[in-house]
Amino acid sequence: MIRPLPTRVDRHGERFRQNLAANTSAVAQLREALALARAGGGEKYNARHKERGKLLPRERVELLLDRDAPFLEICALAGHGIGAGVKAGASIVGGVGVVAGVECMIACTEATVKGGAMNEYSVMKSRRLAEISEENRLPAIHLIESAGADLPNQSRIFVPGGRAFRDITRASKAGIPNICLVFGSSTAGGAYIPGMSDYTVMVDQQARVFLAGPPLVKMATNEDADEESLGGAAMHSRTSGVSDYLAHDEYEAIRLGREIVSLLPGRKAGPAPCPSADVSPPLYDAEDLLGIVSADVKVPFDAREVIARLVDGSAFHEFKPEFGTTLVTGWAHVHGYPVGILANQGVLFSESAQKGAQFIQLCNQKSVPLLFLQNITGFMVGTQYEQGGIIKHGAKLINAVSNSTVPAITIMMGASFGAGNYGMCGRAYAPRFLFSWPNHRIAVMGGEQLAGVLEIVKRDAAAKSGQSVDEMELSMMKMMLAQQIDKESNAYFATARLWDDGIIDPRDTRDVVGLCLSATHNAPVEGTMAFGVFRH
Amino acid sequence: MTPFDKVLVANRGEIACRVMRTCRDLGLSTVAVYSDADANEPHVRLADEAVRLGPAPVRESYLDLEAVLAAAHRTGAQAIHPGYGFLSENADFAEAVTDEGLVFIGPRAETIRAMGSKAGARSLMARHGVPVVPGYSGLEQSDEALVEAAAGIGFPVLIKASAGGGGKGMSIVRGADEMVAALAQARRVAGAAFGDATLLLERYVESPRHVEVQIFGDRHGNAMHLFERECSIQRRFQKIIEESPSPAPALTPAIRAALCEAGVTAARAMGYEGAGTVEFLLDAQGRFYFLEVNTRLQVEHPVTEFVTGLDLVRLQLLVAAGAKLSDLVPEVRQTGHAIEARLYAEDPALDFLPATGRLLEWSPPEGPGLRVDAGVAQGSVVGIDYDPLLAKLIAWAPTRAEAVLRLRGALRRLGVQGVTTNRTFLRAVLAHPAFVAGDTHTHFIADHFPVETRAAVPSAAQVEVAAIAAALTDADERVERARGTPAVRPGFRLDHAVPQWVEYVGASGPVRVEYEAQARGRYRARTGTAPDGPGPWRDAKLERDVVGSGGWRLSVDGHAQRLVVLADGPARCVRGAELQVRLVEQPRFPELDRTARGGGCEAPMPGRVVAVLVESGDRVAPGQPLVILEAMKMEQTLTAAAAAVVEAVRVAPGDRVEAGAVLVTLGVPADD
To answer: Sign of dihedral through CA atoms B183, B189, B191, B194?
Structure first.
């Protein structure tokens, strides 16, 4: 029905080949970073863990998942490059995976990383995982073996960390089950994860769940207690009732977890996609994306070439193609789910912003999810545009994005600067999922521009006070600032701080978007006609 | 015009189907009979009408002559075709059919009765100048008399049941010291199987060929032969490959003519009506000896049909209706060469132990010069109650070499899974240089295929391909079936790092497959077993084959094959032109608390308990017989592995048991 987009990609062109080379190496770098995160505590600690006859955290996750089913890892590089004992992944393996045919939020502590102790990034990541579970109504499965809080850093985690337990019981109240499988220590505050969960399974001779361990009990009450009677799986299953199931080993715990999920009412609240048999892949090879996407964010690229490689059958119905042409809007399907796409094709002008706002309203009117393909250096500046009311038009877009109730997914394809980040549903605008490509840059503005702006301000100030500028000092300052901003705006800096849900290989985008859409459809998909006041 | 227009076929399986096809061609209506086990089998579906005889055991169904006659009356059938086996050579039945005013499609009852006695047949033939093997068929049946007779004949000697057939109860004795034990065994089998323990002895001809002459007679006194068949390739005294003409070099045109003429002489001696077979042993010098007469249509009759262009069942029906052979067959010629291979549900590696199960796949090959007579269909259950013959594949070509090639090709293309068969073994026999050279004799299999070579053990490379096929087709189907999640590449992970895995156990041990999808249908896969670890990664491409169901095309490192992969519970049956591998998927979550079973003896296959030789509390020595089990045509004695005390006997004679059933439990003697 809908016509496919044409393609004008020249695979032999100079730009294509340069982009391909640069992006291929960027993807290789991403794989390396992910491999490091996957290694968990590293060879030594993994080996020690295996010697104890235990499954590695990622092995537990793999066994829990349905065979051949997808697992969309979330914030895999949280804490990347932070140092101070924080490892990439923040001591948690988390993501959306399919268990017994049901999409679930899986969170597994990494016992091989500092005993699975939680740092502030772990707390942020847990919070994000809980948020995804809650917004998309995904049952949550916690696989726990953790030393608890990273005590020397308790000040950073104690207060926000408490939210985790509140999240669990509020999810329970909302009808989103939480299932807890305890493989090892889950003590003190951590004991409330099994304690708050709807279903708890403990592994015999391994689970240790108590508010205080033997040394603290001795300190507090002078009682000599052994771990097994204080918080063993058998005790909790037979005496305290904190555990609902006693598993003889890890395999049985995971099998029980799968059975529990299989008995949940599995109906998804959102509308079903087209049957997968009717879903045709894009006409064009996703491999081309590495040659299309500019390695240098300053060089623009055609968003339609990207759309043609993301959507079913490359079929795209463009809305308002002749108006506000720097924002491409239109409808398509991804893995059978209808989506309304907003993709940047240059800076945002007033017309582009108005068109975007209208398009978002239309998607809400027909309850179609939104996909933002963000590559934006900002709104247009200058007297002509200010006088044309670019602020009020930008405000319309931000109003629409902020109040929209259909699920939104944002892909950071390149630049994300200034208010463009907001208008295109940046992290603060709560898209259900947000993933970035490796070449992505994010900041209030580019390093050079920012340094340049500061230089002008400095020179103006010096001129006003009649002082001369130290050219040497100024250029040093400019260079250092530009370097600092560049470093702080790269994709790894951003993902480490959980500004996104992860960096992905651009070629995986279609599948990632499909999995995200599928996850969002566990909750009702309903648009709204209620927005803030639009200033006309 | 025939005096009948509705024929009841008192048989099952391929022969019932084959007879009904000709009946239908002639415009005759057909009636099938069936046991409870066969209610949905092809012969029932093929017939115009079908009548239940009784429960599965043959004595209560296909051998129940009253029930068969009642079925004929109930349906108004005026003729009964007995097929082969079952009631086909039962003179009382033939007589009863005639007495009831129905037509028996076969020789007269007295012919059957006369030929049913091996001894009587021999002396009749000897009187008419048909050469016979020296032997003993005296009424004196004492051990002493038989041992003495054996010495007179000269060892080796063959012991046979006088009333028997089909090799049942036969044994070869090579010295006087083995005689007494062999006689006891033969008497018991003969008594149990035929209700008559009378034995006869004959000279055992070394390395003979088994050659038989197809004869036909009518009630007008005509008798003729339809040339010879060679059926030397046998296992457990049963034929598995038959051909016509015989490739025996000793069979010069003159000797061939003499042999066929001897068949006609025999037919005249009996006043034979209908189709029959006179069996001979042929030695390397071209001497032939009369063996016996089979007063029925033979299993291997299609090879004669192929080389003569005649429909033997048509001739049977028309002759029974009173037609003259001279009108039906004015002249007969032997043209080209035909070979038949019998596909049995059996395991050649376990001495052709009958196999049971459900046919997951049945897709017979088709082509010119090819005929498949099958009595099964996809989903058929092969049980223990009946002969495990599934089908016959028959190939014809102008020359023997071409016919062999064609038959081998047919066996390669044949799709049969779910039940262990002798398919691969048949292919090996047909490919053996001695067979190709026509150098066949009745010890062919024992000489060229000692039991340890019979296992169809797939090569490591075949297991690798099969394991990859099983794993990837399952992955593809799982993704296809997944509801509620998009059909992204199987095992989607952002870091492309974790292979999916599955563990199988095949005939040659465990296999672990690891695979990673690059996209739907494009994979990297490797297989391995502990302790060697995984082998090299292979590029694998998988797509559904458009032709046929369950079909796939799998390319491994650029080598594409067409494969059929079928699920049988946790097992995956993978079949291609050059491979057939069954792999049982191992559970991801091992069962807990598996209670170890105590020592004891288990049934190695489904069967019936013939005798229980111990009682609870008995002390048994290592090797002491505990239970005798019978399945199909085999009797098996189960013995104690070590000195023990019998704790419990869980079965009684006559019980039917499944494979793996514990028959007797054994414990450690108290004083040990």
So the answer is: negative
Closest Cα in chain B, distance from residue A31 (Å) = 6
Residue B368 pLDDT greater than 50, yes or no: yes
Min CA distance, A458 vs chain B (Å)? 46
- Give me the torsion for CA of A421, A422, A423, A429, rounded to 10°: 120
- Which residues of chain B does A253 touch, with a Cβ-Cβ cutoff of 8 Å? none
CATH of span A276-444+490-520: 3.90.226.10
Q: Is B296 a catalytic residue?
A: yes
- Nearest chain A residue to B481 by CA distance is A276
- Hey, are the CB atoms on B488 and A249 less than 8 Å from each other? no
Contact: A276, B496; criterion CB under 8 Å:
no
CB contact residues (below 8 A), chain A span 244-263, against chain B = 248-249, 251-252, 254-255
Domains of chain A, by residue range, sit at 39-262, 276-444+490-520, 447-488
Does B595 score more than 60 pLDDT?
A: no
Cα–Cα distances (Å) from A400 to A235, A357, A403, B402, in that order, read 54, 5, 5, 80
Angle at B583 between CA B582 and CA B585, to 5 degrees: 150
**How many structural domains does chain B have?**
5
Minimal Cα distance from A279: which residue of B?
B487
Same domain, B425 and B493: no
Specify the CATH number for the domain of residue B495.
3.30.700.30
Last residue of a domain, one of B585, B617, B648: B585
A34 touches chain B (CB under 8 A): yes
Which residue in the block uniquely carries the two structure tokens 């049956």? B573
pLDDT along chain A (536 residues), means of 10: 92 95 96 93 89 93 95 97 89 96 96 89 96 97 91 86 92 96 90 95 95 89 91 94 96 97 90 87 96 92 97 98 97 97 96 97 98 94 94 96 98 94 96 97 86 88 87 89 89 96 97 97 97 94
Q: Are B571 and B605 members of one domain?
A: no
- Give the model confidence (pLDDT) of B59-89 as tens digits: 999 999 999 999 999 999 999 999 999 999 9
Torsion of CA B267, B268, B271, B276, to 10 degrees: 10
Note whether B263 and B198 are same-domain residues.
Answer: no
Fold of A39-262: 2-enoyl-CoA Hydratase; Chain A, domain 1 (3.90.226)
Residue B643 domain boundaries: 600-667
Tokens read off for B82: 């007995």
B489 interface with A at CB cutoff 8 Å:
yes
By C-alpha distance, which of B410, B423, B408 is closest to B240?
B423
- Residue B522 shares a structural domain with residue B466: yes
CATH topology of A39-262 equal to that of A276-444+490-520? yes
Say whether residue A330 is in contact with chain B using an 8 A CB cutoff.
Answer: no
* CB contact A515 to B (< 8 Å): yes
Distance CA B393, CA B369 (A): 11
Whether residues B223 and B83 share a domain: the answer is no
Of B488, B495, B589, the CB nearest to A511: B488
DSSP three-state, residue A222: coil
Residue of B nearest to A39 (CA): B497
Put simply, the answer to whether A518 touches B482 (Cβ < 8 Å) is no
Rounded alpha-carbon distances, angstroms, from residue A313 to A359, A449, B482, B661: 22, 40, 21, 58
**CB count in 10 Å sphere of residue B472:** 27
The angle, 0 to 180 degrees and rounded to 10, between the axes of the packed helices A447-465 and A471-488 is 150
Which of A70, A255, A505 shows the shortest C-beta gap to B485? A70
CA distances from A397 to A348, A409, A464 (A): 10, 16, 39
Q: Which residue of B has its CA nearest to A98?
A: B485
Q: How much of chain B exceeds pLDDT 90, in percent? A: 61
Put simply, the answer to whether B484 touches A279 (Cβ < 8 Å) is: no
State whether B308 and B439 are in the same domain: yes
